Amino acid sequence: MQEKVQIKKVSPEEVAEVRKKLPCGYGKIIADMVSGQYKPITINHMVRGYRSMKPVVYKAANKLIETINNLKNTITNENSK
Predict the structure, then answer these.
(1) Measured by CB atoms within 10 angstroms of the end CB, which terminus of the chain is less buried, N or C?
(2) Cβ–Cβ under 8 Å, residues 4 and 51
(3) Is the CB of residue 18 less than 8 Å from the CB of residue 61?
(4) pLDDT one-digit tens code per residue, 15-33
(5) Average pLDDT over the chain, rounded to whole?
């Protein structure tokens, strides 16, 4: 018998935090990151709270935010030399 896998729902607070940190054009980038599983407009609606945020989109959004922060830190470090 198969066991049901519990998928953690993304809380509204987590969605709001992601929304604050994402740059313009994030829908297309995240759609590419999730291999076109969702269209950019659907991802925009998830981030804006019109649709439920899927865990795969939430993970991709956090990865994008992390990548942007790492890039900013790298540029800042190189400029300070």
Answers:
(1) N
(2) no
(3) yes
(4) 999 999 998 889 999 999 9
(5) 88
Q: Are 27 and 44 in contact (CB under 8 A)?
A: yes
Both structure tokens of 61? 């959004």
b/e per residue 22-35 (b: at least 16 CB within 10 A): beeebbebbbebee
* Nearest 10 degrees: Cα torsion 27, 32, 33, 39: 50
> pTM to 2 decimals?
0.82
Give the type of residue at 1. M
C-alpha–C-alpha distance, residues 71 and 78, integer Å:
11
- Residue with tokens 């800042």, as numbered in its chain: 76
The alpha carbon torsion through 47, 51, 54, 60 (nearest 10 deg) reads -20
Provide the 3-class DSSP secondary structure of residue 67. Answer: helix
Segment (H or E) for 43: helix 40-48
